[in-house]
Amino acid sequence: MTFPYSPTTALIVVDLQNDFVTGSLAVPGAESLIPDVVLEVRRARRAGAQIVFTQDWHPEQTPHYDEWPVHCVQGTEGAKLHPDIAFECLLSDYVVRKGQGQEDGYSAFEDPALPYILREARTAVVIGLAGGHCVASTAVDAALPHRYQDTTYGLEEVFMPLHLTRFVETNVDEIAEHVSRLVESGVRILP
Length: 191
Hints:
CATH superfamily: Isochorismatase-like
Number of strands: 9
Shape: globular
Number of domains: 1
Strand content: 15-25%
Largest sheet: 7 strands, parallel
Helix content: 25-40%
CATH class: Alpha Beta
Radius of gyration: 15 Å
């Protein structure tokens, strides 16, 4: 399905970083996703959509590593955006660095300025890695109203295209559980 991007759409590209593509926490199928995401970013940009990129950006020591292997340590090669994605990231795009302290950093909306950055958007499309974690958390949070300074901002619709997302889990039932929770949270799933 081709999404109808416009200037009131935000495309949020989640965590297409070296460690998640080919590194210490590589997501199954991540490498094959890169060309499709590059095309999606270009389509969105041509339509005037706003583009946001996210990065896990963890310190060397964090409780997050009690659950996951060490990954995306601030300033390392593994934390960098995949080269093909980095090439698409313009100075005018907003980059959210998540998990900079001791928090897990799953949602891009941990950045308190993001709702203000997206203030002109009415719709968001959330894609990337990993579907049941950072993409899901960002999509669910995007569907909620957020306050920034004295104003409340919110998106009318949030979409998550499955063909532009990869999951850590490879079990179809586990993926279906994630998708079900997203739907219950108001996220519209696209094939």
